[in-house]
């Protein structure tokens, strides 16, 4: 959290200044109220016009002060939330497949939506009010030290007591906030599963059962929120009780000093300063606990989890090599089992840089398994997979995933601009984006859009054809400047004509392409360099033209 604020230190200074304006505003109100009391104390000699003008000027100042403060704060708030969203999304995108698959996708969705909303709602309000209350406490103490130094000493002792009580609540506040976040994840996952299978549930008349299950999840979520809010209120109310006791002490102190000639104006100022020292501190400590709870949420959604890194694979610490492919990936005597079933048996073949490979085989033969092994998704195999002679099991996964891309039959597009759907919110030079657009034959689509690359797509690209959506997913890989492209049934959801066009795009790319496809496009499939056919656990490598010549002949 500290580095987040430090990176935006210019805007953060503005935010602090905006908070200071609120503090000045409170002191203006104190002085205004005290001066009015002083005028009233004059009785019949009071100047009512003076009271009216003081009230009007104070009101105008209050409005102007609020507008200026709001304008100074809003830029900082916008930039911080945008940065948190970027960091949260970047954390997910940097995960290896093994790390990502440890949790449901709905958990990540909850992190990106629920947790960030929680952070936004609690962090800025809590931080602003904490700064205001802390600033007012300090300035009130300084002023009281000059006016009534003995009373200032008593208030410091009272403040120390309030601090001890608030510190007692701190750990539980953070824990309860984390529990709310966890329950949000569970609820989001359950609801998404219900919606995904709603048709099946209705056809089998199971919708009532799942409705009760969803309502039960909602009750648990609301219960966690209720407990958190009750705890926060109990904390606040307990400290408020102590605050009122302090206020009674202040009144008693002032009554004793009236006999010594204290004026009503001075008494009003001293009382308000003393009350602010106690009540501002009362507000400040619970707010600081909320800021710390918000920081935990920030750490959770943006920082790498040690548990994830440690539990995914104990051998990760031994992975020290960078991934490069200047020549080839060699699969050497690789065998792989699912339980007792052998999927691959002593496979041997080579993937040459820049060549195009098509994986074929009957359903269940192991096509997806093979592409998962080549893409470093699985590592519990026998034998070796070597990238330019370096064992896969020694390569750092992030360096591998930085240089590869994946294309699936089901394309997901964000409800955002074409540009952001291609770049995936990363800073990519315009020349690389344009290269990707031209390579995927998207120029006509983009030129037809009112805002070009900045045209906003509808939900999951509903305003595009299947071929256009697939081309955008391919453009992501090119813009990323990937060296290897893994394609899993990239054309199976398209009609024959579109499938042929997309297949041509794969074959025209300079990258190494490893693709799975059950389709045969006459005159195009033959343009692959090699076919890797899986039969009874063995991988047979053939020249594509020869392989399809034999198939067609048969």
Automatic annotation (TrEMBL):
<dbReference type="GO" id="GO:0005524">
    <property type="term" value="F:ATP binding"/>
</dbReference>
<feature type="domain" description="ABC transporter">
    <location>
        <begin position="329"/>
        <end position="552"/>
    </location>
</feature>
<dbReference type="InterPro" id="IPR011527">
    <property type="entry name" value="ABC1_TM_dom"/>
</dbReference>
<keyword id="KW-0472">Membrane</keyword>
<dbReference type="GO" id="GO:0140359">
    <property type="term" value="F:ABC-type transporter activity"/>
</dbReference>
<dbReference type="InterPro" id="IPR017871">
    <property type="entry name" value="ABC_transporter-like_CS"/>
</dbReference>
<dbReference type="InterPro" id="IPR027417">
    <property type="entry name" value="P-loop_NTPase"/>
</dbReference>
<feature type="transmembrane region" description="Helical">
    <location>
        <begin position="268"/>
        <end position="288"/>
    </location>
</feature>
<feature type="transmembrane region" description="Helical">
    <location>
        <begin position="12"/>
        <end position="39"/>
    </location>
</feature>
<keyword id="KW-1133">Transmembrane helix</keyword>
<feature type="transmembrane region" description="Helical">
    <location>
        <begin position="123"/>
        <end position="145"/>
    </location>
</feature>
<dbReference type="GO" id="GO:0016887">
    <property type="term" value="F:ATP hydrolysis activity"/>
</dbReference>
<dbReference type="InterPro" id="IPR003593">
    <property type="entry name" value="AAA+_ATPase"/>
</dbReference>
<dbReference type="InterPro" id="IPR003439">
    <property type="entry name" value="ABC_transporter-like_ATP-bd"/>
</dbReference>
<dbReference type="InterPro" id="IPR039421">
    <property type="entry name" value="Type_1_exporter"/>
</dbReference>
<protein>
    <submittedName>
        <fullName>ABC-type multidrug transport system, ATPase and permease component</fullName>
    </submittedName>
</protein>
<keyword id="KW-0812">Transmembrane</keyword>
<keyword id="KW-0067">ATP-binding</keyword>
<feature type="transmembrane region" description="Helical">
    <location>
        <begin position="51"/>
        <end position="68"/>
    </location>
</feature>
<feature type="transmembrane region" description="Helical">
    <location>
        <begin position="151"/>
        <end position="169"/>
    </location>
</feature>
<keyword id="KW-0547">Nucleotide-binding</keyword>
<dbReference type="GO" id="GO:0034040">
    <property type="term" value="F:ATPase-coupled lipid transmembrane transporter activity"/>
</dbReference>
<dbReference type="GO" id="GO:0005886">
    <property type="term" value="C:plasma membrane"/>
</dbReference>
<dbReference type="InterPro" id="IPR036640">
    <property type="entry name" value="ABC1_TM_sf"/>
</dbReference>
<dbReference type="Pfam" id="PF00005">
    <property type="entry name" value="ABC_tran"/>
</dbReference>
<feature type="transmembrane region" description="Helical">
    <location>
        <begin position="238"/>
        <end position="256"/>
    </location>
</feature>
<dbReference type="Pfam" id="PF00664">
    <property type="entry name" value="ABC_membrane"/>
</dbReference>
<feature type="domain" description="ABC transmembrane type-1">
    <location>
        <begin position="16"/>
        <end position="293"/>
    </location>
</feature>
